[in-house]
């Protein structure tokens, strides 16, 4: 299935190595799309050596306000990369392509 969610890009990461990046998964408990997104993030970040973290939208009022209708949300270096469904190849490209 094609990933229909938009990509938001930041120019502030030009020339960075994958290991110098940070992926953030914003999720909530009991969300099957969040579980699917986490599997993709774990796989891609693990293969590339990119650190990643997850944040629970139910524990952060600002994240809840900003992203509630979009979860799961993936940020790359603090900039929104995608939401709802995470495309493995697109995430890999975002982490390995200098912009």
From TrEMBL:
Record-linked InterPro entries: Glutaredoxin-like, Glutaredoxin-like_YDR286C, Thioredoxin-like_sf
Segments of this protein annotated with the region Disordered: 1-20
Gene3D superfamilies in alphabetical order: Glutaredoxin
Any single Pfam family the record assigns to this protein: Glrx-like
Signal sequence, renumbered to the chain: none
PANTHER family, alphabetized: GLUTAREDOXIN-LIKE PROTEIN C5ORF63 HOMOLOG
Protein name, per record: Glutaredoxin family protein
Organism: Streptomyces gibsoniae
């Amino acid at each position: 299935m094609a990933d229909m969610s938009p990509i938001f890009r930041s120019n502030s990461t030009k020339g960075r190595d994958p290991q110098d990046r940070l992926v953030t998964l914003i999720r909530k408990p009991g969300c099957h799309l969040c579980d699917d997104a986490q599997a993709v993030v774990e796989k891609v970040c693990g293969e590339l050596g990119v650190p990643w973290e997850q944040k629970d939208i139910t524990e952060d009022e600002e994240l809840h306000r900003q992203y509630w209708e979009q979860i799961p949300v993936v940020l790359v270096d603090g900039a929104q990369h995608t939401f709802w469904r995470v495309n493995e190849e697109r995430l890999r490209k975002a982490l390995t392509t200098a912009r």
